[in-house]
Structures are given as C-alpha cells and as structure tokens.
Amino acid sequence: MILYNMSDILKLTSERLTLRPITLGDSNEIFYYRSDSETNKYQGWIPQRIEEVIEFIQNKVSPIIDKNGTWYQLVITLNQNGKIIGDVGLHFFDNENKQVELGCTLSKDYQGKGYATEAITNVLDYLFNTLEKHRIIASIDPRNKNSIRLFQRLKFRKEAHFKESILIKNKWMDDVIYAILRCEWSVKS
Length: 189
What we know:
- The chain is α+β, with helices and mostly antiparallel strands.
- The chain is built from five helices and nine strands, in the order E-E-E-H-H-E-E-E-H-E-H-E-E-H.
C-alpha cells in the first residue's frame, strides 16, 4: 500500500486500484451502480434520482476523516483509467475513537474479480496501521452471501446475528456483525 496525504487529500493505492475521497463530480458514476436495485438489494440506500446522490455527498459525508460520529466515503477507482467502480464507507462511531464500521459497494460490472478484497485490504491497512484503530466491524444482511464470504476471506469473524434489528423500506431486516481486531490483522498482513 502507498499512502499519499497531501493537502488533506487522502489517496490509498494498490496494484489495480486507487481509493480517494468522494466528490460532487463523482455523482453520475456513483448513481450508475448505486441505483441498480438488483445488485444493491441488500443495501439500505438505493437512490432513485441523481439528486439523491448529490444530497448524500453534500449532507451525509464528512469532509474530515476520523471524526467521531460521522461517515467518510471513499470511491474505488481503476488505476488504468480512473473509472469509479465502487465505494467504501467508514463510520467513525466509537466515543474513544478506536472502532470503525466499514461498508463496501461495488458495481455489478466489477464483482467477482477481487476488487472488493483489494480495496478493503487497503482500507484495513490504513485504519489499523496509520489511524491505529482497535476494531473494525461490518454490518451485513445475512442473505448477502457474497459479502459474508468477502469478510470471512479477510479473516473477520461473525460476532452477532440480530433478528429484525434494522428497518429498511418499512421492513424489519436481520443484521449480522463481522469484526476483526488490530492484533488479528497484524498477524494476517
């Protein structure tokens, strides 16, 4: 992993990908894959209009990384052409600022090619080794077998299964929590 942090612009790069902060200029590309209701059927947010993406970027995403109580959003881009293929959300939720919730969305056009694993590995390295976080969690719909396999491959362990604990589109859904500790990641990487 190569990390650049110049002028408060965070960039995480790997062999095939660069992750960088989301911008308003990314709205159309994000709308393309986020509005696909079949691909994102396990997600709580599926925008119906481009204006929803713009509002999300303007009002829901923190411009500052590592700020307690906020979400920070990175887009996943291909190094070869800069195309946005997905995003990673980081929720800094712990009052002691040592835990982070992580979520990932990838365009259906790029799934099954190892991009999510590469992107999340990059983010985990940054969270554990640069920001020195203690614990990272992922909240996953238990029907989303591909996401569960992804996080298991990254050595996350299942910690909980909450029955009908999240209300999405007026329907109560189950939620499973996977997590990994910094000491466990050190062994892996």
